[in-house]
Design a protein that fits this description.
Elements (H helix, E strand, L loop, with lengths): L5 E6 L7 H9 L8 E7 L1 H10 L8 E3 L11 E4 L14 H19 L5 E4 L17 H9 L5 E6 L2 E7 L7 H4 L2 H17 L7 E5 L14 H15 L3 E6 L1 H4 L10 E6 H12 L4 E5 L4 E5 L16 H24 L5 H8 L1
Parallel strand pairs: 1-2, 1-5, 2-4, 3-4, 5-12, 7-10, 8-9, 8-10
Antiparallel strand pairs: 6-7, 6-11, 11-12
């Protein structure tokens, strides 16, 4: 493996939220520059506005036009937006949505051509970013489409707690129709492969939650467990995936059961994310498993209510950066050890 620093692309997200605050606070730690070369896709003007609002004097960014100009010992920034962009802290504006998309579009273009190695996205407002160019429920679906690497899985992480979902950004009324044997099996395959390649876990063990209360009580409170989930788990195990369950969701996180597995697959968004954020709101990271490229983000949102007040915690964003670096290294290592494996006959010759 080449001993080169990883180029980390960072999108500034919604300029009226806490994105710049958590980015700046994270990059103020110069020790990170020993691990990677950060490149913000955003606006030097907006960054300066936030730095002043936060009363931060001992931090500066190196302005560049392209990723290949990045200084390895500096935090760099590429301007992607209109110079006349206006910051309105704590407000959702169309201008903020436009600038969030412009930064994302530029960063993804560089990610696809290899100008940056990994991508970290600051929070966006999923409403104001909508346009003819962005008609997606969120980052996950946009990246799935643009990177053209097949289906992905939204995976929330904090330490050894890893929670994925079958039905992501969909209305609760549409959840039951999204819970199919095929969908569960698809997510299990993505999750299993990610645990192996991205986290270096051999023979990962996955807990699968039920859809209905008390796992359906043998059909008394719904039949999805018997008709859909259990058959999906049976097929998964036939494919060599150690998937167990379905476990009743209400007691799973409250007990120590969640510590006995390498990952948990919930059936829908809030079933998995509500308990996850209750346990790890400040340190949680969102990772898009299954993509051809590495993308992470903090698990929190724009937090308009505290924008510009200097009280936002950068822990989640910093953990997102560390995770992106770790996954990138793990993937390279997996590629190295999987490359040109010796044939069984050659192995026998070496033994003799």
């Amino acid at each position: 493996m080449k001993n080169t620093k990883i180029k980390v692309g960072i999108t500034h997200g919604d300029i009226n939220g806490i994105g710049y605050e958590v980015i700046i606070k994270t990059l103020m730690d110069n020790r990170l520059l020993e691990l990677c070369t950060p490149i913000i896709y955003g606006s030097p003007k907006v960054a300066a506005y936030h730095r002043k609002a936060l009363n931060i004097d001992n931090f500066s960014l190196n302005n560049i036009k392209e990723a290949n100009e990045a200084q390895p010992k500096r935090a760099n920034i590429i301007n992607c937006v209109d110079e006349n962009i206006k910051v309105e802290l704590g407000k959702s504006t169309s201008a903020a949505g436009t600038s969030a998309f412009q930064a994302l579009e530029s960063a993804v273009a560089d990610l696809k051509k290899g100008a940056i190695d990994v991508l970290i996205t600051a929070p966006i407002n999923k409403k104001n970013i909508q346009s003819k160019d962005f008609e997606f429920p969120g980052h996950t679906e946009y990246l799935e489409a643009k990177l053209e690497s097949g289906k992905s899985l939204m995976l929330l992480l904090s330490g050894k707690l890893r929670v994925g979902v079958v039905a992501g950004h969909v209305p609760i009324s549409k959840v039951p129709e999204k819970i199919t044997k095929e969908a569960i099996l698809e997510k299990l395959e993505i999750l299993n492969a990610s645990l192996l390649k991205d986290f270096g876990i051999q023979k990962p063990k996955i807990a699968v939650l039920s859809l209905n209360p008390h796992a359906g009580d043998n059909g008394l409170i719904g039949t999805e467990e018997q008709d859909v989930i259990i058959p999906a788990l049976d097929t998964a195990r036939e494919k060599g995936i150690m998937a167990l369950g379905p476990f009743p969701a209400d007691g799973f996180f409250g007990s120590d059961d969640c510590t006995k597995f390498d990952a948990i697959l919930a059936m829908y968004h809030d079933q998995g994310l509500a308990p996850f954020k209750a346990l790890a709101f400040d340190s949680g990271v969102n990772f898009t498993a299954g993509l051809s490229e590495v993308r992470t983000s903090p698990a929190h949102g724009t937090a308009y209510s505290i924008a510009g007040t200097n009280v936002a915690s950068e822990v989640s964003f910093r953990e997102a950066l560390y995770l992106a670096l770790d996954v990138y290294k793990n993937r390279r290592m997996y590629e190295e050890i999987s490359k040109d494996p010796l044939k069984p006959a050659e192995n026998m010759k070496n033994v003799q």
